[in-house]
Design a protein that fits this description.
The structure is a homodimer. Chain A is mostly helical and about 450 residues long. Chain A is about 65% helix and about 5% strand. In chain A, helix 2 (about 15-20) packs antiparallel against helix 3. At the A-B interface, helix 4, helix 13, strand 3, helix 14 and helix 16 of A face helix 4, helix 13, strand 3, helix 14 and helix 16 of B.
């Protein structure tokens, strides 16, 4: 058991990579056999394609299938290339239908068709059904293999059914109860069945206040429902409210982790990528960032135009230029604080799209308070080192910029949501760049007013 | 059942708030009775303290306990103030020990002591044991109420024990197997017991490659283990490797959601707050942002000093000022892309602290590529509108700033981790502000070199 401890010194410092390089197959094979599943999966993911293939081929057949299932689709795809066709068929056949669909989404269409063709008729039906639902929908993610009960069953009958049907099911802990038309009428748990008398009826044990989603529901919404409700599995129904699958808690956690990575990328003004960092080439990493940088530099070009308009003012009072970075940084920071706050609040439904006015009004007051604080803090040193009028320009600009940037930062995630865009695209870099030009307009407006230039 | 649909039109548009205001107790009570648990919890969380208290007091006793358990500790605390003492005792007694500990962490010490004093001796022991573990540790979060089995038990005996001991346990789906000294030797699941013959031995069914954590393990690490392994419950052991609790998947999801909110706050340069956005006053919101803004404006003051040094150059070539916002924005954007990328990769262990050199070297090449792209894109328009030498200064600055900012953005989260600080503090606003002064040095360095000023 010790071998499975995450930081176990016995395994942590013998990297597979060096054993692969040494070409000592026996030592590598022995080493792999001692590793816990989790370490093994984590270590494989850190190898290059060739080394990963060498190590994987040395795994015992059933263990290999387990490892394959635990790997991210992107690694699964990379492994497939180096394996014999019969081995590939075995691995694909062993995957749960929902995991199989995620892999099929990753590979080129030609490979996907070849893999589908190799499936048994039964597994093929399960897979193509899932493939029929839109991407990012609960239907794609659900497991079509579940055990359902009827209200009229006794607990004894239910347990017997679970014993027979439960072999292929992804979970038997959450048990949907259906009527004769396969409509969902309640849910019970294996726990309730096990602790109760065998003559009781399922209908008397089931909970009828059931959470469920439609096959077309957004995966993230469904997964958050599993999380907030603390469910083991969430029933998924079709347009006629008939049960067609269940979304299990482990798949929900995977979705939430993937959404978190996607939001983190957007919040950093990067194009989300499914591949873990070290598995990406330098060129691919640059590609996830180039588009946003270009968009942002075009937006930033507006600041050049604004400054050009005020070039004479700048020539007259060069000291004005000194405060440009500080002022636009502060505006960007206020805007970033408000936007990251709203992106998160919208994601977890702490605020709803209809709260937009209430939120912007709150943020206006927050921004004003922060602006007054920063304006006061900046006034004294600028007045002492330069002169009171310049200090007044800087302080007035800080108050205005903070209020305006905070309001804009709070409003933009709502605008994105309204436009059907993920609010997370309103990133700190985007809001910073967007409020810069307006910040400069405010600054030179006050400068012209107060310094009479 | 329809009433529990997240977007059910029948309930979504009859807010509790207006019923509370109308003082029609009967209508409010009827309305509350029709609501699903989830909607009820969500709606209560949107009310002010008084309205929440009015609505809560109208709930039927057992339902109230369920709702109370489902509320965040911060709302639980706000509710307690308005309730009669006997009601409070009942609610606290009904909470699971781990949920109770989370509430006790929220309330003032005086209130916590009064609540503890009211507990039954049995519940008191469970609670004080958990309170003995460090904050943010797995021990605080685990449930001490679990069902454990012995390897020598038959499945029939195991099921009988589960039926007796399982009533108070938080989960009976994951079943730790212990030896005579209560050491963890394996884990099995209710599923395995239910589908197998009653004469089989637990020892033959259990999995001995068990993941577990110590009571002092970090909550986030433990919760991520539950997520990546797809566990129903993770065993928690003491220093002598004896089982003392289990961390269930629903609690793990709560931890991950809380960590995500905390990271989101840090990434937006805000002090994390446990209270949902709309439940915070405008002043409290401003307070979560003020400190970071002050730190950042002090850091930004460095840009004023740098520009002051180059005031003569600026006076000679005012056009240099025009590109300041664009150049520092771009540097900040490159740095933000790299830092957000590393914060996430470190959080999910895609990269490890020892990868720092490899990562910074990769990012140097990424930054160089992006800088070359942006420099080339900027050269032509600047050369056409102004003059080639100024264009050369801008392009050379872009190449250098992008490379430098990308490296710094990638390295800083590792530095934070090394210093024992959450890498998420390396936010886009922080990195933007930090690289600005150095960006200006680079810019005026090139300007002096190329324009001979």
């Amino acid at each position: 058991m010790a071998a499975s401890l995450p930081n176990d010194p016995a395994t942590a410092h013998v990297p597979i990579a060096s054993l692969v390089r040494s070409e000592d197959t026996q030592a590598l094979s022995d080493h792999l056999a001692t590793m816990g599943m989790r370490d093994l999966v984590a270590e494989l993911a850190r190898l290059d394609d060739d080394a990963m293939g060498v190590a994987f081929r040395l795994l015992e057949r059933d263990r290999a299938a387990e490892v394959f299932e635990a790997l991210e689709p992107t690694y699964q795809q990379r492994l497939l290339g180096g394996l014999r066709a019969d081995r590939v068929v075995h691995l694909i056949e062993e995957l749960d239908p929902d995991d199989r669909v995620r892999l099929l989404d990753e590979v080129p269409a030609k490979v996907a068709n070849r893999l589908l063709a190799a499936l048994s008729p039964e597994e093929l039906t399960l897979t193509t059904t899932l493939l029929g639902y839109p991407e990012e929908s609960a239907g794609r993610l659900m497991s079509p293999e579940f055990v359902s009960l009827r209200a009229a069953m006794t607990v004894g009958e239910a347990l017997a059914k679970i014993r027979t049907d439960g072999v292929d099911a992804e979970t038997i802990y959450a048990l949907p109860v259906l009527d004769d038309e396969r409509h969902l009428i309640g849910v019970t748990g294996l726990r309730a069945l096990v602790v109760t008398d065998r003559d009781n009826l399922v209908g008397d044990l089931m909970n009828t206040d059931v959470k469920f989603v439609s096959t077309h529901a957004d995966q993230e919404v469904a997964a958050r429902l599993v999380s907030t409700e603390g469910l083991i599995a969430l029933p998924v129904v079709d347009a006629e409210q008939r049960l067609v699958g269940v979304l299990t808690v482990d798949d929900a956690m995977d979705v939430l982790a993937a959404e978190e990575s996607e939001d983190a990328a957007l919040q950093g003004a990067r194009t989300p990528a499914k591949t873990p960092y070290l598995a990406m080439s330098v060129v691919s990493i640059a590609r996830t960032r180039a588009l946003w940088l270009l968009v942002l530099i075009v937006a930033a070009a507006l600041t050049v135009n604004v400054l050009q308009v005020f070039e004479d003012s700048l020539a007259q009072v060069v000291a004005l230029a000194l405060f440009i970075p500080l002022l636009i940084d502060t505006g960007g920071n206020c805007g970033s604080q408000a936007s990251t706050s709203m992106v998160r609040a919208l994601a977890v439904a702490d605020v709803r799209p209809e709260d937009v006015r209430r939120v912007v009004w709150r943020e206006a007051r927050v921004g004003l308070m922060l602006g007054l604080m920063l304006g006061a803090a900046a006034f004294v040193p600028v007045a002492l080192i330069w002169e009171p009028n310049l200090a007044l320009v800087v302080a007035a600009t800080l108050v205005s910029i903070c209020t305006w940037a905070t309001m804009a930062g709070a409003a933009l995630p709502f605008v994105a949501r309204r436009l059907g865009i993920d609010p997370a695209v309103v990133s700190a870099p985007l809001i910073t760049t967007l409020v810069d030009a307006s910040g400069l307009l405010i600054y030179f407006g006050f400068a012209n007013l107060i310094l009479n230039i």
